């Protein structure tokens, strides 16, 4: 039996349509949410992301502010721009596209963003808030994965989840979100012993490793829900971290790459910007 394909593209389109509706409702109150994206340097992959973020921001009726700085911009100049965006009431969300050039201190730059405008959810305050169960801005990729999981599985309480990867932007917040939903969570990484056996216990398996075809078909517990976060550029195009063809024979449901987690990430960025705008105006969080 072949797994159901989780259509992230369709889910993301539905989410964006809901956001566009909420943006129209805010417009009736004279509020237009704004997202500022800052790109330093000319990394081609970042260029693509920034362009599609800008386009989708405009498509849902928000204002997109795009700031492009040369690769040799001093860190102080970037911090000054962030301070200006922090103070600008038209800007509800600020995203500094990573990676930054090597001469910059990524943590210092991210932590300069006002936490309530940190729509990537990478600020140390937001990471701490998520970890301690307080209202936070949640990183977009894990938030998108959580939505796909809830759509497919309903309540996640008691489910056994394995997250492969412990980065601050995917693995750790993913584990926090699953824990918040009362799943039983194990975080695996490069030092984990007998990863295949651990994966075989997982009803929910999240792969955020960054290595093509890393997760083998026979690591999948029959019927498991598999979320492949990986985006790996190979000669054959974009592939995930999971051996999709083999995994599909055992999983109950699986996200494809492309067309799975990726589109949800950008939609969640817009959702976070909407949430930030609502909170600024003392309105309840959108659904
Ligand atoms: P990082 O490189 O920061 O983290 C990778 C993680 O994988 C690390 O925790 C590392 O462990 C672990 N790992 C590496 N090798 C092994 C191994 N042999 N066995 C077990 N664990 C291993 O990557 P990111 O978290 O930033 O991204 C992960 C993937 O997700 C990438 O392909 C990236 O492109 C993609 N991505 C996709 C997004 C989307 O929108 N779909 C958004 C963000 C990322 P250790 O800590 O021990 O080194």
Automatic annotation (TrEMBL):
Catalytic activity: (6R)-5,10-methenyltetrahydrofolate + H2O = (6R)-10-formyltetrahydrofolate + H(+); (6R)-5,10-methylene-5,6,7,8-tetrahydrofolate + NADP(+) = (6R)-5,10-methenyltetrahydrofolate + NADPH
UniProt entry tagged with the keyword Lipid metabolism: no
UniProt feature coiled coil, ranges: none
Tetrahydrofolate dehydrogenase/cyclohydrolase catalytic domain ranges (all copies): 6-120
Any matching Pfam family: THF_DHG_CYH
One GO cellular component, as annotated: cytosol
Transmembrane segments: none
PROSITE patterns cross-referenced by the UniProt entry: THF_DHG_CYH_2 (PS00767)
GO molecular function, one term: methylenetetrahydrofolate dehydrogenase (NADP+) activity
Domain of life: Bacteria
Pathway as given in its UniProt record: One-carbon metabolism; tetrahydrofolate interconversion
Keyword RNA-binding: no
Gene Ontology BP annotations: L-histidine biosynthetic process; methionine biosynthetic process; purine nucleotide biosynthetic process; tetrahydrofolate interconversion
Domain Tetrahydrofolate dehydrogenase/cyclohydrolase NAD(P)-binding: start-end pairs: 139-279
Functional description taken from the UniProt entry: Catalyzes the oxidation of 5,10-methylenetetrahydrofolate to 5,10-methenyltetrahydrofolate and then the hydrolysis of 5,10-methenyltetrahydrofolate to 10-formyltetrahydrofolate.
HAMAP family noted in UniProt: THF_DHG_CYH (MF_01576)
Family the entry assigns: Belongs to the tetrahydrofolate dehydrogenase/cyclohydrolase family.
Cited PANTHER family: C-1-TETRAHYDROFOLATE SYNTHASE, CYTOPLASMIC, C-1-TETRAHYDROFOLATE SYNTHASE, CYTOPLASMIC-RELATED
Protein name: Bifunctional protein FolD
Species name: Paracoccus tibetensis
Gene name of the record: folD
């Amino acid at each position: 039996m072949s797994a159901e394909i989780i259509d992230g593209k369709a889910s993301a389109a539905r989410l964006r349509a809901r956001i566009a509706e909420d943006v129209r409702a805010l417009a009736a109150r004279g509020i237009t949410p704004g997202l500022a994206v800052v790109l330093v340097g000319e990394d081609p992959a970042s260029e693509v992301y920034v362009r599609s973020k800008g386009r989708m921001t405009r498509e849902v009726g928000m204002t997109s502010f795009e700031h492009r700085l040369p690769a040799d911009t001093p860190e102080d100049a970037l911090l000054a721009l962030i301070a200006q965006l922090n103070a600008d009431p038209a800007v509800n969300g600020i995203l500094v596209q990573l990676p930054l050039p090597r001469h910059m201190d990524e943590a210092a730059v991210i932590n300069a963003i006002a936490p309530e405008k940190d729509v990537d959810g990478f600020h140390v305050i937001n990471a701490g808030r998520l970890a301690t169960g307080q209202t936070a801005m949640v990183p977009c990729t894990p938030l998108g994965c959580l939505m796909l999981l809830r759509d497919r599985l309903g309540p996640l309480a008691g489910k056994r989840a394995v997250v492969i990867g412990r980065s601050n932007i995917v693995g750790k917040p993913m584990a926090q979100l699953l824990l918040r939903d009362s799943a039983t969570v194990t975080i695996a990484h490069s030092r984990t012993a007998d990863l295949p056996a651990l994966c075989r216990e997982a009803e929910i398996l999240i792969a955020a490793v960054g290595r093509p075809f890393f997760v083998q078909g026979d690591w999948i517990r029959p019927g498991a829900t598999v979320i492949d976060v990986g985006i790996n550029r190979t000669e054959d195009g974009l592939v995930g971290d999971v051996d999709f063809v083999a995994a599909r024979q055992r999983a109950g449901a699986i996200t494809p790459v492309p067309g799975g987690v990726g589109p949800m990430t950008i939609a969640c960025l817009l959702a976070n910007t909407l949430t930030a705008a609502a909170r600024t105006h003392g309105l309840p969080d959108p659904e």
